[in-house]
Design goal:
The protein is an alpha+beta fold. It folds into two domains: 36 residues; 123 residues, Porin (Beta Barrel), CATH 2.40.160.20. It contains one helix and eight strands. A hairpin with a 2-residue loop joins β6 and β7. The longest helix has 35 residues.
Length: 169
């Protein structure tokens, strides 16, 4: 009977030792997997693409990240006919709040100016929160969606929404 207890205790200790070793091995693998996961938005500078915004328009966009947290963006929409053109130009500052490996969150604020400027033309100020998705299969490509508020100099307040795709060099 004593041999059975000793044998059971040895089996229990062996199982515990194997379990601890396996847990340590798994922990090491998980830690190195997390450590080797690269942040796709690191070292970004210039991004060119398309940014569509409501209520102020937008089409051709250029983003430049001055640092990992701060960027400037310019968006231009031009239309016209018979030698006459009009459109809008938007200038914004972006501040990255969350910098994860594949998804980033940022806030942006700026102003949109129509051109040519007519007397009484409204300027639209906006503040948005944006989510930028980065793709492991295409690391230079990023897609974003934005939601926020827009206020015009004519007193209109509305919801601001937008989306865009940028290619980073």
């Amino acid at each position: 009977m004593k041999q059975i207890r000793v044998g059971a205790a040895l089996v229990a200790v062996l199982c515990l030792a194997v379990g601890v070793a396996k847990a340590q091995d798994t922990g090491t693998v998980e830690v190195s997997a997390v450590a080797s996961e690269e942040n796709l938005s690191d070292d970004r500078a210039l991004g060119l693409g398309i940014q569509v915004e409501f209520p102020w328009g937008g089409l051709i966009s250029a983003r430049y990240w001055l640092s990992p947290e701060i960027a400037g963006e310019g968006i231009v929409l031009v239309s016209g006919s018979s030698g006459w053109f009009e459109g809008s130009a938007t200038l914004r500052a972006l501040f990255r709040v969350v910098d994860a490996s594949t998804v980033d969150f940022y806030v942006a604020a700026g102003a949109s100016l129509p051109f040519p400027m007519y007397v009484g033309s409204e300027v639209i100020f906006s503040g948005v929160g944006g989510i930028e998705f980065n793709f492991r299969s295409a690391p230079n490509l990023a897609w974003n969606i934005e939601f926020g508020v827009a206020c015009s100099t004519l007193g209109n307040v509305t919801m601001a929404i937008g989306t865009g795709v940028h290619f980073y060099f």
